[in-house]
Every structure is written in C-alpha cells, then in structure tokens.
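Researcher: Batch entry, complex prediction.
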Amino acid sequence: MSENRIKIVEKILNANDRLAKANRQKFDDAGVYAINLMASPGAGKTSFIIKTIEGLMADGVQIGVIEGDTAPVTIDSDKINAAGMPAIQINTGGDCHLDAVMLENAIDQMNLTPLDLVIIENVGNLICPAAFELGAHSKVVIASIPEGDDKPYKYPNIYRGLEVLIINKTDLLPYIDFDMDYFRKGVEMLNPGLTTFAVSCKTGEGFDEWLSWLKAKISK
Amino acid sequence: MHELSVTESVLEIACKHGEKARAKKVTDIFLVIGKLSSIVDDSVQFYWDFISKGTLCEGATLHFKRIPAELICLDCDHKYTLDDELSPCPRCGSARIRVISGDEFNLESIEVQR
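Model: Structure tokens for the complex:
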C-alpha cells in the first residue's frame, strides 16, 4: 500500500445509521414504541394501519402515523386523520425510500409526548427501504397474497432483519395460486423463526394475535 | 433505486478523510460491496461525475470490489457460497440458514495526492 493510500473502512451509510440512533433516542425519551412498516405498493399498508388504530382505540392507545410517499399527495394521511389520529406526511420528492434524515424532520413536527405508538409507513417498495435504518424499534413487512409466493426469493433483503411479517389479504387465498409452504420456506431461509401473523384487513381475521403482540410491546 | 443518496454518502466520507489527510486531491476511492447489498455500479458512477465536481474528489476513480455472500447452515454447520437464488443447505437440505458475509457496504480506502 503506497503512503498515499489511506485506509478508512467506514460504512457508506454510517451517517444515516448515526441519525437513526438519534431518532431512536427521541422515541425512547418520549416512551414511544416505533414501527417501520414496509411493503410493496398495494399490499395494504394504510388499511392495515387503520385497522390497527381501530383495534387499539378501545384500550386508549395513542398512535401517531408518519406517512412516506414519493409524490405530494395526502390521500393516506387524510385517511389516518379521519380515523382520529395525527399524521405527518413526508414527501420524498421521488426518492424510493425513507431515510433517517426525513424521519428526523417528521419527528420534529410531531408531538411525541402524548403518544404510545408511532407507525412509520415507508414508501411502497420492497428494495430500497431495506437498506436504510430509520431508528424504529421494529421493522414490520406486509406481504399480500396477490403479490405471489415468490417474493422472499426475489426480494430477500427486505425479509432479513425484520421482527414481524404480516401476510395480508388471506381472504383471497381461495382465488389465487399461492403456495403458502413455498412462501414460508423462503422466509425461513432468510429469517429463521420470524414472528408471522396471517391477517385479512377486509374480514379482520388474524388481527387479535397481531394486536396482542403489539400491546405487549407498547406496555413495556 | 437509491444510488444518489449512496453516492452522496461516499462523497461525504471521502472528502472528510481527504481533508483530514491534507490531501490536494483524492484520486481513487475503493468501495467494498457485498453480494447482498443492492447497488448499481454504473448508476453510482453516473451520479458521481455530477456531484463530485468542484470538490476534493473531482475526477476520482471509483473502484468497486464485490464480495460473495457466505452462508452457514444452522443445523449441520455446513458453510457455502450463495450462487444466484437463495437455496437451502446443499448438504442437509435445511432451510435454517444464516448469512455470514455479503452485507458489506463499505468505503475501504482512498488514494490521495498530497
């Protein structure tokens, strides 16, 4: 190695990771449990959040939602507000994912003090959000039946390093060729023993299990 | 894809270390990318030419070193390299596997003129 070669060995996303830690600290200081919710477009992220809000309302859980979108629309945050909870919309300006800087800006606009739970709805995308830590306590991915059973094989990174997998739209199973064993085997290779809940936002099936998991986390 | 934000981070880290070394110019940047990290070299290069203009790193050559993904079977301890598609342990067929390497996404070194 010549004397003009300088050894560095620094993670390229180091700055993002540092900021993600600062975000985590803000959540911790406010006693808020935060979830980074990721899925492809149309998997049912917003419906899932609304169903979750409805399910926790009776227990008096206060939930804030941070909506990431690539375009300046408020469709999703309007739905959350209509469900009675505060929402902050982040427009990524065409970017394919949320990063820790964008989340920091959103946190600063949100009053965390009265909240118990913050759900961050990431940009609908199975590739890029996987690479950027935000500072949430857990990453949750929603896979939906119509997307097909090969997604863990095609988008492996998003299935690694997450705490919970939601399989949504189970009400469509009778109509779609979805091999659950093949799907679960792919997931098992990427994330052995991953906590998984099969749900339907339409019928409400499976939500009780998911909500009890979540309540246990919030009350900690 | 998120190559722009990645390229910006590379520039930031390289400039920081170049300045620290009192370099006149950063000529080469060596990146180490694991097979499981998604990044398109050409796209990074494309952004690089734009965003490095007027900085210490202007004109620096980007070198990409790809490293393979290595897996270990949690049932039989067999180690193997990932080919293309994710596959169960080739020795015992178990799906309980863990990634040992392949996640790397590092700026390993820079070469400078002083």
